[in-house]
UniProtKB/TrEMBL annotation, chain A:
It comes from Halovenus rubra. One of its GO terms (biological process) is isoprenoid biosynthetic process. Keywords: Isoprene biosynthesis. The lineage of its organism: Archaea, Methanobacteriati, Methanobacteriota, Stenosarchaea group, Halobacteria. This is Thiolase domain-containing protein. It comes from the Archaea.
UniProtKB/TrEMBL annotation, chain B:
It holds the Pfam family zf-ChsH2. One of its GO terms (biological process) is isoprenoid biosynthetic process. It comes from the Archaea. The keyword Aminoacyl-tRNA synthetase does not apply. This is OB-fold domain-containing protein. Residues 390-462 form the ChsH2 C-terminal OB-fold domain. Keywords: Isoprene biosynthesis. InterPro entries: ChsH2_C, ChsH2_Znr, NA-bd_OB-fold, Thioester_dehydratase-like, Thiolase-like. Residues 352-382 form the ChsH2 rubredoxin-like zinc ribbon domain.
């Protein structure tokens, strides 16, 4: 199987841009990604595109994939839109890796885009809930905040963790996001702010929920056969894992972990030969604060019930043993559904190529990304290795 | 006019009641309006945001069936009386029959258009001499915010099972009709019952019809231990004492309006349940309908099972006037634009056995329960045709949240606005064998949200889930088992 390398990644800022179109956002992300490829890359070099989007603000657009690639001059190439709710972008990357490994393509664009802020707040809530289990779960009056709140209730009931621990996720990720020029909510918050915010769905308050954002992000991937034509950096996709689970929470065996994440992570670790102890950083899907705690355990960063300790002891801070969400995560950097997974690629690229500015870690070698659809119905995990410079 | 001694009537086996837990006191209304027009009433019962006459009727019927351990499939008549059905057209019978698990051959009738409809339904049910009939009287009358119908308006339901082996004989009944237009009416398209408020005229209509109907009975009203009388307010029933020749204490025995308000068609039957509990053996049941007419029935109790009574109900929750206006939807904005999760009515219909009666499926291969019974078996993963297994409706909370303002999807924004934070949980429903459970998402109602915790035992009821395209979807919700 051919190895696949990340040769460039770029994005728009994430934020509220109600007046921008999804094509315009995608074009900006595409230009940014191309610019960041060392040796530059021509439009004609890209063999295929896979793009993730939930539905551009609830407008059930068909063919929004070709609509963005044709818009930027990527003409006549195969383009597929992937829909896996909030994991659409991560799964677009996985599809790109598959296309290259299979030999069907040498250079593939994995993108994602979403415009959410031009909707009324009610329309936004209507639309967000559609990735849950709509016939039973939603009809108890929940959107995702409610379902993650149920998981949080079970977690706080099962383990020695508190609402304050949930708030620590917000404090950490906002601190990181404040240093990210692309972040949507680029400000710091105190633990006091994050504990005392208005309740959304008990025990989750406003600071335990990520924003809905607009934005686009693009990753460019190349086969081992052609990577040298574009860059001397060797940022290898070391392993990929993905899994699905029941869309509704009540159907699952556990409410204090996402089985799909566990499976995806095990697969990615096995295929890459990289374990959680080897990782130098991770970008994980913190749509709600509880999701970051669950992910620590599902990704095997710690034992079951120990996630709060990692936060309390600063292990996942930028200067800790395993920095998590140096980009600010979904909480601070933002969450433009389809673009979130490819947005994680931008942080990986920044950290590996020393372009992370104030967020820069000290020469990381292994990084992990974790992207979840809905409340855990689909998960994809990528492990990356910076192999260094090859000429 | 006739007096009937009809020995072929079915008798009352059991009665039960249901009153919503919210109360609006006369003091609170007085504080808001400077006066209170519900004469003789201290509190009125107010339905929760997800309750209506259909769900209240279901609750009362469930209590009767459960308390007397009556198999619903032995009932083949369902007679409902209400002046305030959830929809002006579309019968309540089919939904109620489905929720209660009655058979496909059930004769369903709906009596409406008059507060007498509850007693009418009871009488009609009793005339099915050799059959078992479930009679439900359920009502929640409203008026204009500042009038006596609104101030007096309560909410509640009563249910009775009648059959050939009942212990509550109905030896006689009589009716009287005399035209009295304008005492109480609701124009087409209106949700507010009103009247011309001509005190003496209204009083004459009431007293004349109920007295004449009573006079047409064989027995003397003074033989009755209690009179359970239509109660538009808390004074009018007592005004009849003189004409009927009974003591006010006898009327008091069968009157519950002071504590729950005017419960329309349900009033006389709620009074009957109350009188039976207090030990009355002979009850004069009087239904009055504006228009006007009255029905008189004598009930002779030789051991009617009383499942519940309106007064010593569940714990009640007092409302402020602001809370009342919210709960009634007077000051809420209605469903916002943007639509909800769309579940088409045909696809909803497919799930009705689960929504109404918790019909799970048992895997014929591995025996594991599945709810809803669709898709691959959660036990063995095989795509199987499940064997229906009706769950007992009890369970344990496994995960729980209270959805606050801003956390509700659009189709639940109105519920949130009316009732404040509501509880959404994952509940492990008890199975039918051993300690097996099957988990489902469900709201938990009839409880303060902060009181619901993981591990709590809960029991199923049926409430309104939401309304889409003007079609209300009813389905199970859970409430604390000690309710």
């Amino acid at each position: 199987m051919r190895d696949v390398y990340l040769i460039g990644a770029g994005q728009t800022a994430f934020g509220a841009f109600p007046q921008r179109s999804y094509r315009d956002l995608f074009a900006k992300a595409y230009q940014h990604a191309r610019k960041r490829v060392d040796g530059d890359i021509e439009t004609k070099d890209i063999d295929e595109a896979v793009v993730g989007s939930l539905g551009v603000g609830g407008r059930q657009l068909g063919l929004s994939g070709p609509a963005v690639t044709e818009h930027v001059g990527l003409q006549n190439i195969p383009c597929t839109r992937v829909e896996n709710a909030c994991a659409a972008g991560g799964f677009a990357v996985r599809q790109a890796v598959q296309a290259i490994r299979s030999g069907m393509a040498d250079v593939v664009l994995a993108g994602g885009f979403e415009v959410m802020s031009d909707l009324s707040s009610e329309m936004t809530k209507y639309w967000l809930g559609v990735s849950g289990e709509t016939e039973w779960e939603r009809l108890t009056g929940t959107t995702f905040s409610g379902v993650y709140a149920q998981m949080a209730s079970a977690y706080l009931d099962t383990y020695d963790a508190t609402v304050e621990d949930l708030s620590r996720v917000a404090v950490k990720n906002h601190k990181n996001g404040a240093k990210n020029p692309k972040a949507h909510l680029d400000f710091e918050c105190s633990l006091e702010d994050a504990v005392g915010a208005p309740e959304v769905a008990n025990p989750l308050n406003l600071y335990h929920c990520c924003p809905t954002s607009d934005g686009a992000a693009v990753a460019l991937l190349a086969s081992e056969d052609v990577v040298g034509e574009y860059t001397d950096d060797r940022l290898r996709v070391a392993g990929v894992g993905a899994a699905s689970d029941h869309v509704g929470l009540a159907e699952r065996d556990s409410y204090v972990g996402l089985a799909a994440t566990e499976t995806a992570a095990q697969t990615a670790y096995e295929r890459s030969g990289v374990g959680p102890d080897d990782l130098d950083f991770a970008e994980i899907h913190d749509c709600f604060a509880i999701a970051e705690l669950l992910a620590y355990e599902d990704l095997d960063f710690c034992e079951r019930g120990e996630a709060a300790k990692l936060l309390r002891e600063g292990i996942t801070e930028p200067d800790g043993d395993l920095p998590v969400n140096t980009s600010g995560g979904l909480k601070s950097k933002g969450h433009p559904i389809g673009a979130t997974g490819t947005g994680q690629m931008v942080e990986v690229f920044d950290q590996f190529t020393g372009q992370a500015g104030d967020r820069q870690l000290d020469s990381p070698r292994y990084g992990l990304t974790h992207n979840v659809g809905g409340s855990g119905g689909a998960t994809v995990v990528h492990v990356f290795e910076n192999e260094g410079v090859k000429r | 006019m006739s007096v009937t001694e009809d020995t072929r009537l079915a008798a009352i086996e059991a009665v039960g009641t249901y009153i919503p837990r919210y109360r609006l006191s006369a003091d609170v209304v007085t504080e808001a309006w400077g006066q209170f027009h519900g004469a003789g009433i201290s509190e009125t019962a107010v339905p929760a945001a997800d309750e209506d006459t259909l769900t209240m009727g279901y609750e009362a019927a469930t209590r009767v069936l459960d308390a007397s351990d009556i198999d619903p499939t032995t009932i083949d008549g369902l007679f409902v009386g209400t002046t305030t059905p959830p929809t002006e057209e579309e019968a309540m019978g089919p939904r109620l029959a489905s929720m209660l698990g009655l058979g496909e051959e059930t004769k369903t009738r709906q009596f409406t258009g008059s507060t007498r409809a509850g007693v009418e339904a009871l009488l009609a049910g009793s005339q099915r001499a050799k059959r078992r009939t479930l009679v439900i009287a359920t009502d929640a009358p409203r008026g204009a915010p500042d009038d006596e119908q609104e101030h007096a308006g309560g909410a509640g339901a009563a249910a009775a099972v009648l059959g050939p082996s009942g212990a509550g004989q109905l030896p006689e009944h009589a009716e009287y009709v005399e035209v009295y237009p304008g005492t109480r009416f609701r124009s087409a398209g209106s949700t507010e019952t009103t009247g011309l408020g001509i005190t003496e005229y209204d009083r004459s209509a009431f007293i004349e019809t109920v007295t004449k109907a009573t006079a047409a009975l064989d027995s003397d009203p003074t033989d009755a231990d209690a009179v359970a009388l239509q109660s538009p307010n808390g004074k009018l029933p007592y005004r009849t004492a003189g004409e009927l020749g009974v003591e006010t204490e006898t009327i008091q025995q069968g009157t519950v309006v002071h504590a729950i308000g005017d419960t329309g068609t349900a009033g006389p039957l709620l009074g009957l349940a109350s009188a039976l509990t207090a030990g009355a053996n002979r009850v004069l049941l009087l239904g009055y309908g504006s228009g006007g007419n009255a029905t008189a029935l004598t009930v002779v109790d030789e051991g009617i099972e009383v499942a519940s009574t309106p007064i010593d109900e569940m714990e009640t929750v007092g409302l402020s006037y602001g809370e009342y206006l919210r709960l009634r939807g007077e000051i809420t904005a209605g469903e916002p634009a943007g639509g909800g999760a769309y579940v088409s009515v045909p696809s909803w219909k497919r799930t009705i056995p689960q929504r109404h009666r918790l019909v799970a499926g048992r895997c014929p291969d591995c025996g594991v329960l599945s709810f809803p019974p669709t898709g691959a078996c959660p036990g063995c993963g095989a795509l199987v045709d499940y064997e229906p297994a009706e769950l007992p409706g009890t369970g344990t909370v496994e995960a729980v949240t209270a959805i606050g303002q801003g956390g509700a999807p659009p189709e639940f924004v109105e519920q949130q606005a009316k009732s404040g934070p509501y509880v959404s949980a994952v509940v492990a429903l008890d199975g039918t064998e051993g300690s097996e459970t099957v988990s489902i998402p469900a709201q938990v109602v009839s409880v303060d949200p902060e009181e619901v915790a993981i591990g709590d035992r809960v029991t199923a009821t049926v409430r309104r889930l939401y309304t889409q395209e003007d079609v209300t979807r009813y389905g199970f919700k859970m409430q604390p088992t000690d309710r």
